[in-house]
Structures are given as structure tokens and as C-alpha cells.
Amino acid sequence: MFQRILVANRGEIALRVIRACRDLGIEVAVVYSTADKDAPYLKLADQAICIGPGPATESYLKIDRIIAAAEIANAQAIHPGYGFLSENSKFAQICRECKIEFIGPPAEAMDAVGNKDKAKQLAKKAKVPTVPGSDGLLTSEEEALKFAHLVGYPVLIKASAGGGGRGMRVARNDITLLSGMASAKQEAESAFKDGSILLEKYLDQPRHIEVQILGDKFGNVVHLYERDCSLQRRHQKLVEESPAPNLPEKVRDNICEAAVRLAKAAGYYSAGTCEFLLDKDNNFYFIEVNARIQVEHPVTELVTGIDLIREQIRIAAGEKLRFRQRDIKVNGSAIECRINAEDPAKDFRPSAGTITKWQPPGGPGIRLDTHVVTGYRVPPNYDSMVAKLIVHQPTRVEAIAVMRRALREFTVEGIQTTIPIHQEIMKTAEFINGKVDTTFIERSFLAGK
Ligand code: MV4
Known about the structure:
Blueprint: E1 4-7, H1 11-23, E2 27-33, E3 47-52, H2 63-73, E4 77-79, H3 89-97, E5 101-102, H4 107-113, H5 116-125, H6 141-151, E6 155-159, E7 169-171, H7 174-192, E8 197-201, E9 207-215, E10 221-228, E11 232-233, E12 236-237, E13 239-242, H8 249-265, E14 270-278, E15 284-290, H9 297-304, H10 308-316, E16 333-340, E17 342-343, E18 349-350, E19 353-354, E20 357-359, E21 366-370, E22 377-378, E23 385-393, H11 396-409, E24 411-413, H12 419-425, H13 429-432, H14 440-445
Parallel strand pairs: 1-2, 1-4, 2-3, 4-5
Antiparallel strand pairs: 6-7, 6-8, 9-10, 9-14, 11-12, 13-16, 14-15, 16-23, 17-18, 19-22, 20-24, 21-23
The structure holds ligand MV4.
Ligand MV4 binds at residues 131, 156, 164-165, 200-203, 206, 208, 232, 235, 277, 287-288, 438.
């Protein structure tokens, strides 16, 4: 096992990883930018190393400074958290060359699933269903038109290098297909320096179901069941839960087994997520792999009783998985609400500033993952998430009741947060009945506001 780990991230996930290291009896160092210099979690690490100014491009994204910090700290491994360098295969490769263990998948597996085109090819090889599409990258307008006429409009143009909805265009006829192709290509070229695009049948109001997997360095892969992440707005998830409501047992088994096949085909180890879209008839289609620990990992931890960060560390240290598939069970229901420093009244604009009062909820079945305390100043440089409020109860009905109670107890002053919107969501018939799809918020919830 490692003696000392460097945490190459900030905020709640930095604190989450610091805690996991402490729980495993491992020393921990953490990097920070000057914008985070007063963050209280820095004191919980054995060492905190400044790596530059506020902008992430000058600190949390600077590979050479992070490697230097690991060397100064004498850390044998780096945990990248999520975002920043977590899915950067070049960073994982540099860690390897510097003899520092990257706590995540191998660089080769990251490359194998790193763009939609390659990931889809791999899925097909592993007999995992994909959305009907232009087999591979689009090479001409004629090819695009032919495909669109074959499967019928609407179709979706996707940037192969894109993620989280970036570089996507819906086309409903030949005209918008050709103009959408050109603009998607341009956007992808400037955003990802890779203008490759592909075409898919556009699914109508799909649900977003993702499967958590864990693999070790010996080729063992298990799944930890699914999360339903359909409740999102402009590709920002608001609520996640496990297990997914209204998912027939047979469909669940098939999706989870497909995710394991895909991970095995990629030579994947560590924690990862396979994302699927689910249509109205419960047909599922693989869309992409997230080669990192995700924001919403706690709901899976609560229902399975498995600490995913600890497992990532053990796997990186070369330990074998300590459970077989049949040992992993889903217990009860867990729901997470992302609490963001945003103003719902002002089109969800980030609401930076000092938190003058922070009074979190408590009681049985409540977990709050946050780095925030009263007096904390939310820096303007980063993601606006300030806390994840997670509840775990024997049933989904009870989980919703406890979430409503917890949101009511939660008092934040000095900044605007998404707490009021979560209170509204928890009252809607769609959420209560587990009928939410990825278009719910924009189609109906915000329509009347
Ligand atoms: C789709 C789709 C409909 N049809 N692909 C959005 C982000 C990226 N991960 C894939 N996304 C979608 N792909 C086809 N063929 C609808 C979405 C989509 C979506 C997916 C997951 C979660 C939220 C979403 C919100 C809007 C659109």
C-alpha cells in the first residue's frame, strides 16, 4: 500500500479523497491555487502545496506543477478527483514515466474509450448496443444525407471528442443537417482540436442511466449497479439516484452486464462509468464512458456499502478486488441533490461571494459531502457546486421524504443556491413517480416559471 498520496484537485472531492486516505492510514498531501489558499480542508492534509494562481489553466491543469508537487511531497500516487486532469491520458502516461501511480484507469484504456467513435467501435465489438448511427466518423455530406434518409429525421450530430453535450446539433431536415455538420465541426475543432463528427438517430426523450464499474489490475471487473441521472438542465446534472426507478429487473441486469463486457474489452481498471440512453420501450444504447470517479458516486456507495475512493486506491496499489459480483447487493434507495452556488431566479448564474451562514441538515440517513463552512468565500474561478446532499433510506418514498426534510433544514445565507429548485423538484409528480427523462426540466418544469 502507498505511504503517501497527492490529491490533485480542490473542493469537496479533494476533501473526500483526503478523508479516504486518512481512513486507510495513508498520509496525504494536497495541491491548491491561491484562490483556494484559505480553504479549510487544506488543514486536514499532512501537507498543502501551492501550485499557482486562481485560473485552472495556471494551477489545477498544469501537469508539470502537479508532478513537481508530488515529488516535493514524496507521494507515490496521485488521485486526480473528477474534472481537471482526471481523464487526461497524457497526464496518466507522464505519471507512469515519473514512477508515480495514477489513481485511475491505465492510459491505454482511457485512449480506447476517450472519444465517441472509438468507444462505439469497442462497444460493438463487445456486443453492447449502440444508437443506430454513421458507422464511424462522417467523411462527406453525401454520406450524412444517405444515413439521415436511411434512419429518418431527426438525427443528432455529435463531436467525437465532445462530452457532456458539447458540440451536439439536432438536425430535422437536409438543410439543417448540412449547416449543423459544418458548425459542429467548427465548434469541435476549436474546442477539442479535433473536428471529427458522427451521426446518430436522435432518441426522443430518453432517460440517462449509467452503470458504475470497478476493475482491478488482474482483469476482474464487477458492476455496482446503476444510477439514474436523467434529471439535468443544460447537461448539468441536478439530481441523481440509485437504483433507477421503474427499471425492470431484466433490463437492469442486461445494462449492467453490458457495462462489464465493455470495461473488460477496454482493458479497464479502477472506477469507471458506462453511460446509456434508455428509450420509452426500455431499449438501452451505450453512449460514452466516464473514465474517472464521478460527482454522483456517493449514491452508489450508500446502496452498495462500498467505498469507491478506497477501492480506487487499493486497486492502484495492486490489490485484487475484495468482492465478487454475487457479493454486491443493492440496499434501499439513495438520492443526491447537487447544491450549487447559483441563482435560480437569474437563469442559474453563478452566485460567488461569502457564505455568511451555513447551517447543514442532519439526522439519520443523511450524508453531506462539502468543503464549505460558515465564512467560506466561493471563488469565482471554478465549478459552482458547494455541496452534495445525499440521503439513504430503505425505500424511495422514504428517501424523498427525508430529502424534503433535509432541504428544509438546510440554511445558507450570503449566496443564492439551488436549494429552492430542489424543494420544487421533490414535490413534482414526475419525480415522485420516477417518470423523469432528460428533457423534463426544460420541457415542463421551467416552462411555467
Ligand atoms: C443523445 C440524445 C438523443 N439521441 N444521443 C447528451 C450528452 C451526451 N452524453 C449525449 N447526450 C445525448 N445524446 C442520441 N442519439 C440525447 C442526449 C441528451 C442527454 C443525454 C444524457 C443526459 C442528458 C441529456 C440531455 C439532452 C440530450
